Structure formats: C-alpha cells, structure tokens
Amino acid sequence: MKTSFNIVYSDKRKFAYFNIAKCGSTSINKLCSEVNIDAVVNPVRGRGVVRKWNHPGIPLEKVKDYFKFTIIRDPLSRLVSCYKNKVTDTNWLEMIFERTEGNFPLEELLNISFPDFVYWLQESEQNLKKDSHWIPYVNVIPTEIDFIARLENIEEDFKIIAEKIGISGHEFPRANKESYESPWQDYYTNELKEIVANLYSEDIELYEQGENYLERK
Description:
Blueprint: E1 4-10, E2 15-19, H1 25-34, E3 46-47, H2 60-63, E4 67-72, H3 75-89, H4 92-99, H5 114-123, H6 125-128, E5 147-150, H7 154-164, H8 190-199, H9 201-207
Parallel strand pairs: 2-4, 4-5
Antiparallel strand pairs: 1-2, 1-3
C-alpha cells in the first residue's frame, strides 16, 4: 500500500522536516513563510511505505547530516482532528474516492458519523492506508529520523527544534487552533477506543508507551 508524503528542508540551516498530516504540519509551513530560514516547502512528493528514507527528489545522501525531525500526536486525538477537518468540514473522503476505488457508498459520505468513519477504516487495511491524513505513523516515519516531537508537548519540544535549526526564541505558531466545543474524548465510546487502538497498535507500541494505553485514556 502506498501513500504520498513530502519533506520541508533547508540547505542553509541543515534541517529536513518530515511532514505528517494533522500533526502541526501547517504550523511548520507557516513558520517557514514567516521566519527567514530559506526552506523549501512541499517539494516533489514521494510515494511509498517508508520505514527507510525514500524520496525521489531528496535522496538520503543529501540530508544525511541534516537535523531530521517530525511531529506526531496521540492517534485517538489525531483521528478526531482528521474527521472534523477532512470529513465534516471539507468532505475529503469524496475527493479521495474520486481518484481511487473504494468500498464505501459515495452517497453516504456527506453525512458519515465518526463511528461509521471508524468502522469504515476497520473494514480493510486499504481503507486505513488510503490517505496521508490518517495513515499509521509506522508507514511513514523513516528510521533515519533524529527527533520526534509531540504535538501535546510542542511548546517544550519546539525549543529543541528551534535551537537545532537556528531560530531560538521563536515559538511554535499554532496555525490551526481548533475551535470545536467538544474535546476529542467526547467522540469515543469504549468500543471505538478499542477499535482505534487496534488499528494503530504498532504506533501505540512504538510511540505511546503501549502498555496500558487505553487505561490512560
């Protein structure tokens, strides 16, 4: 299964940011436009499952000595953010089905509920990996990453990033401050939490200190 991805990089400041959708990527792009860091934003997209560096426009040899980082967030939170932004607000699913074959009736996409969205993801591995906004991290984070920041701790983690890329003193610009009344926890029943935890079990094991994950939610 393949997905598209992109990298933001700066030859001047020697960094490469591996862009993961719904994890602060818009904020990083905003930072690049507001601060003079001479970065190339959204270069030619790569395709593929990338547990190793795989980008046709930016070979690993080019950035092997660069500070390579990415940002992730709790999978439960990320999926709700994806649903609210890409399903409720923009009906991204319909656009996906215009370019790929799927097994969910198009006429039902406009009003799909969050539980039905989760059930649809559960139906097949193809659905889970159909789009970069909800694909598991294990399919898109290469092993060559030097630093993985967390959106939940981004103020502190961004200090490390800012120092490494030479912009100490700048704060993380939250470009998409979600203004929804309901927190992400309100979207879940215990059943839905278990389904999503199973779908993203490898991510949880690698990046969420997997033991007793659901008990902590």
